[in-house]
Amino acid sequence: MDINELQKKPPYAMIAILFVGAFVAFLNNTLLNVALPTIMKEFDVKESQVQWLTTGYMLVGGVLVPASAFFITRFKNRHLFITAMTLFSIGTLLAAMAPQFWVLVAARMIQAAGAAALSPLLMNVMLTSFPIEKRGTVMGMFGLVMISAPAIGPTLSGWIVEHYDWRMLFKIILPFAILTLLLAIFKLRNVMETRKVTLDVLSLSLSTIGFGGLLYGFSSAGDKGWDAPIVVGTIIVGVLGIVFFTIRQLTMDQPMLEVRIYKYPMFALSSVISIVVSMALFSGMIITPVYVQLVRGISPIDAGLLMLPGALVMGFMSPITGKLFDKFGPKVLAIIGLMITTLATYELTKLSADTSYGYLMFTYTIRMLGISMVMMPIMTNGLNQLPMKMNPHGTAMNNTLQQVSGAIGSAILITIMTKHKESRYEAAMTAVAQSGQKPSAAEIKQIGQQALIDGINFSFLIAMFITIVALILAFFVKRVPVTGSPQNPSEKKSQEQQKEAQA
């Protein structure tokens, strides 16, 4: 289909089908976290084993998302979406019926294999179907799915686990997955151009080792400790894998993931800001429940409900932010959003044993409001600078780096929280010992709780400085012009030289 004709009459029904598929996949990503203790009891497995239900899912996604650029370039979008939703549906059905733990782990990995292609595919269809001056609005709608679905997951999961069996988590998703698959078979059409490119096995292997090693290493650090050989080893192997993967891509005529997209300055800057904001976002989503459940003793369902308004605000704001992006550009939105995020994060550095539930909910919601003004506008502005044929590589890179930076940010800030808590506890116990008094069990418990609060406050302080880094970078953002097709800087220079020679 001609690109100009497509952009005059975008395929809204088709995009709606893709939206539902992506929403179900994103929701599934965080749906199982609250149910892990229940699954441990049923299958009689340890914490280190049950963690594979989330780690395995994340690793498969981390491995396949970088390869999504190849799949989107090589295969028709209709066939790719149907294949992805089929895999996701099979994995969901298998998980709902899993008789043994290893079957459940395998089912989650099959789910992840299908889900990995859905987000990049949806983004590329939207970038193809809408002219550059309208992309802010449509990418805002994508933000509604990308941000709100994972945030709603823990609340929904907590309610289901409290009232039903954990298998209901998959039984609820399955009808939506099958319905989306059936609609795709009858309604989806091909709107994107494909090229005959070959998959480089060495690139795929290096990508698997690199991104998989980093994700596993940083995700395991909070549980096993930073000095554990498996953590240090996988991180080192991951870094080396990414270095060799990058070198390999630069020497290929048709790379699996085009790293030369970083020649485009606004894409490079948007990528860095997105990484920094993702670190702050995902770490906050983990540290806040720690405070609510361990310090305040609030139930998992109430902890999920505390985070729900923030998720709803992000979902509500995403389309609005998209329209504001089309009108005012990314810079003013990013600066205002990051100022709000920084101030809200600062408020979370002052938590105490009696901070009210309502105040915590309000502050967390305001923080999510600020983040919602940054993520999609910045990402859209960066993608706008890429030529159309580079879009699959840009979306694949963004999705991969978000997963990796989220895992890294969470691991680092949880470690900071733990180490600070331990040092404050030791200092307090030493002071008590030096006073010659023998503390009671209640006093020791109070010291431990205060040490944990200090650790949480300190980790939020570090998160605040991370958001300040993003705020400083936001002042260098420039709006990508909507007229003309973006060019590679080297291509643009050679064209100018040719014009001079002809003159």
Task: Tell me, rounded to a whole number, the average pLDDT.
Answer: 81
Count of spatially separate domains: 3
Mind summarizing the main beta sheet?
none
Tell me, what is the CATH class of the largest domain? Mainly Alpha
Q: Rg, please? A: 23 Å
Structural summary, described in words:
The chain has 503 residues and is mainly alpha-helical. It has three domains: 1-198, Up-down Bundle (Growth Hormone, Chain: A), CATH 1.20.1250.20; 200-255; 262-487, Growth Hormone, Chain: A (Up-down Bundle). It has 20 helices and no strands. It has helices spanning 3-8, 12-31, 36-43, 47-50, 52-64, 68-74, 77-97, 101-129, 135-163, 168-187, 201-224, 229-250, 265-295, 300-328, 330-347, 357-372, 375-384, 391-434, 441-474, 489-502. Helix 5 (52-64) runs parallel beside helix 8 and helix 7 (77-97) packs antiparallel against helix 8. The protein starts with a helix and ends with a helix.
